[in-house]
Amino acid sequence: MKTIFKRPDSMTDMVTHYCPGCTHGTAHRMVAEVVDEMGIRERTVGIAPVGCSVLLYKYMDTDMHQAAHGRAPAVATGVKRVKPGLIVYSYQGDGDLASIGTAEIIHAANRGEKITVVFINNAIYGMTGGQMAPTTMPNQKTTTSPYGRDVNDVGYPMRMCEMLQTLRTPSYIARASLHDPLHSVQAKQALKKAFAYQNENKCFSFVELLSICPTNWGIPPVKSMDWLVERMLPYYPLGVFKTPEDEE
User: Fold this and answer.
1) 63 burial class (0-12, 13-18, 19+ CB within 10 angstroms)?
2) 155-194: per-residue pLDDT in tens?
3) Domain regions of the chain by residue span
4) d(CA 164, CA 171)
5) Which of 19, 36, 174, 184 is 20 to 30 A from 120 (CA-CA)?
6) Start-to-end Cα distance in the chain
7) Helix (H) or strand (E) holding 174
8) pLDDT, tens only, 197-212
């Protein structure tokens, strides 16, 4: 028998707690595969704050560290500055990074911290009950916006890649999506590029991954993929927004 797929060495043999259809597991596997392929497992440290990914330390077979809600970039900064030879990444959701952690991510990027940030954008708060997040789409219904997000009242969804792109400090900023196999392959390529920039000690790197949350969206998984394509892709365009070479 020829093995065509196996669990990445950087992942533990454990069933995740995620809801059916959730793409957190896909993102976890990609990060683990990148770590394995680059041969950096023994010096990789992941930072998981509060959110659906709070149990990431159970699933990744690398050193892990917990952080308070929104504070993963600050913790990652501390680890990286004390041990510059480590590969340090944070794994954060949109409520965590774009809401309570907005200042943390902006200033970490502006300082040019040599860390990698994996940003999961599923347009809603997941673990805490499906509330409206900074990334929630206009008119999207959530537990705290039962009639839909009113942009006249709470503003428009925040586009973190575009925001970080405006900073003068050299960085790698990219957005990808996990809604089908082709785009998932492209997402992994973006992640590998981000980790490579850190491995070369070049710059801060940030990869946003558009994801689905069938449970809190109230849409079956397959239809959630369609919803992402129809509603999120036009507002959150995919691509590379910035590379360190842009500032040379």
Assistant:
1) middle
2) 999 999 999 999 999 999 999 999 999 999 999 999 999 9
3) 24-247
4) 9
5) 36
6) 50
7) strand 171-177
8) 999 999 999 999 999 9
